[in-house]
Amino acid sequence: MESNDEEKAYAEYRERSRNLSRFDAIEPPPYMCGGISPLHITNEVRRNLTPLCELALDKYNTEQGTNFVFVDILKSTHQGVAGTNYFMTFRAKSPNCPLVTFQAYVWVKLPCYGGQPVVQSCAIKPT
Q1: What is the DSSP annotation of 32-94?
Q2: What is the rounded CA–CA span in Å between residue 17 and residue 106?
Q3: In a designed cystine with 56, which of 9, 86, 104, 126 is the match (CB 3.0 to 4.6 A)?
Q4: How far apart (Å, rounded) are the C-alpha atoms in residues 41 and 73?
């Protein structure tokens, strides 16, 4: 790709992603390194992310004194760091409530850093 085309693609990406949260990232130009990208939810990805959502929801329940149960993942973005940051949007239910949408940020460390997931945040999605 020519330099002008690359600059144009970067500028367009910056403009389109300017007001998006980490949970709503868009696909970057194919030659762009770093940043946060959407994660396509395949069956394998769903199997890998479900325990992370459940871990985040367990932390939320403990801190808030609630009893939400994970239902399904809606979408996720990810970012390569010293491991991977996952910004997941999912639904959960409680015996006395309709389905509620949550957003969780979980860092899965590289094996050299312990390899364990760390819940950075979990909250009901703002409306």
Answers
A1: --SS-EEE---HHHHHHHHHHHHHHHHHHHHHHT---EEEEEEEEEEEEESEEEEEEEEEEEE
A2: 21
A3: 104
A4: 8
| Domains parsed from the chain with CATH numbers | 36-124 (3.10.450.10)
pLDDT tens digits, 79-121: 988 899 999 999 999 988 899 999 999 999 998 988 899 999 9
Cβ contacts of residue 104 below 8 Å, gap of 6+? 52, 53, 56, 57, 60, 86, 87, 88, 90, 119, 121, 122, 123
